[in-house]
Amino acid sequence: MNSHVVIGFGPAGAATARLLAERGHSVKVVTASGRAPEPGIEHLALDARDAGRLTEVVRGAAALYQCAAPPYHRWAAQWPALAASSCSAAEATGAVLVMLGNLYGYGPVDVPMTEDLPLAATGPKGRVRAAAWERARALHEQGRLKAVEVRASDFFGPGVTDGGHLAGRVLPPLLRGRPVSTLGDPDAPHSWTYLPDVARALAEAAGEERAWGRAWHVPTEPALSVRAMTGLLAAEAGTAPVAVRGLPPAVLAVGGLFSPLLRELKEIRYQFDRPFVVDASAWEAAFTVRATPVGEQVKATVAWWRERLAAGR
């Protein structure tokens, strides 16, 4: 049994912490507000940007998983301190720093994304995510810490709610047989990374020394459009097919006047206006975790949402 520390308890942090606990490890989760303990998991209230306090929590841990994210509209302001604190704690304690990354750092591309693409993001959120990894990688190459980044596309699956593009804005209306709205072109191929696969990939990367020092893509099933995924979800739910409508840019512009989230989505609109496809073949050639078949993903997701809605959540 090893000790592990997870920063953040959003969908990915929660899935990772619970997976590690299920495997018999001792897990501490760091969040700003803390939570009641659960089997195998100790929850600590701590600002993870406080490098000194975070280091004390991480001492003795085999790995530190950076799964937290500031509020979406505050990424540019708050990511640098979070990244610096995580690096400091990993350097001071010897814990492997496992960073959960995304695909923003590549910026707009017209090819399937591989890990060797340059980090050429054009927007502030993409640039700040790229800079966080580049800092950790530089320290790794200097021998000051051990670091790896595991990059996922948009999350999909049980546990993904308001922040998912195939979650809170799609599943509740779909299960009631109502039309759904989506960002961008509903027929553009898009990669969806299944949340349990994210947790399994993070855990495997932490324990594989040959993974360290570079970035990897989480194994992800072949890209499917929002319309295609919605059709699979409706079929699993046993509802009639529902209409899928792309939100016009003008609607987003007006909504952005009142919603910081909608305002910030302008930067990543390109991800939904064109094919957005991840290539995880490098991971698959090196490690054991594989993408869960899409049929299993859809079945579990529909069941989870039905239970959630029945409970009034």
Offer a concise description of the structure.
The chain has helices spanning 11-22, 51-58, 75-93, 124-141, 171-175, 195-207, 226-237, 249-256, 260-264, 270-273, 281-286, 294-310, and strands at 3-7, 26-31, 41-45, 63-66, 96-101, 147-151, 154-156, 180-183, 192-194, 215-217, 244-247. With 313 residues, the protein is an alpha/beta fold.
Sum up the overall morphology in one term: globular
State the end-to-end distance: 35 Å
Major β-sheet profile: 7 strands, parallel
Can you give the helix content as a percent range? 40-55%
Describe what this molecule looks like in 3D.
- The chain is 41% helix and 15% strand.
- It is an alpha/beta fold and 313 residues long.
- The chain has helices spanning 11-22, 51-58, 75-93, 124-141, 171-175, 195-207, 226-237, 249-256, 260-264, 270-273, 281-286, 294-310, and strands at residues 3-7, 26-31, 41-45, 63-66, 96-101, 147-151, 154-156, 180-183, 192-194, 215-217, 244-247.
- The chain starts with a strand and ends with a helix.
- It has twelve helices and eleven strands.
- Helix 7 crosses helix 12.
- The strands form three sheets. The chain has a seven-stranded parallel sheet, with helices on both faces. Strands 7-9 form a two-stranded parallel sheet.
Looking at this protein, list some descriptive labels.
two-stranded parallel sheet, globular, seven-stranded parallel sheet
Topology record:
Blueprint lengths: L2 E5 L3 H12 L3 E6 L9 E5 L5 H8 L4 E4 L8 H19 L2 E6 L22 H18 L5 E5 L2 E3 L14 H5 L4 E4 L8 E3 H13 L7 E3 L8 H12 L6 E4 L1 H8 L3 H5 L5 H4 L7 H6 L7 H17 L3
Helix pairs in contact: 1-6, 2-3, 3-4, 7-12
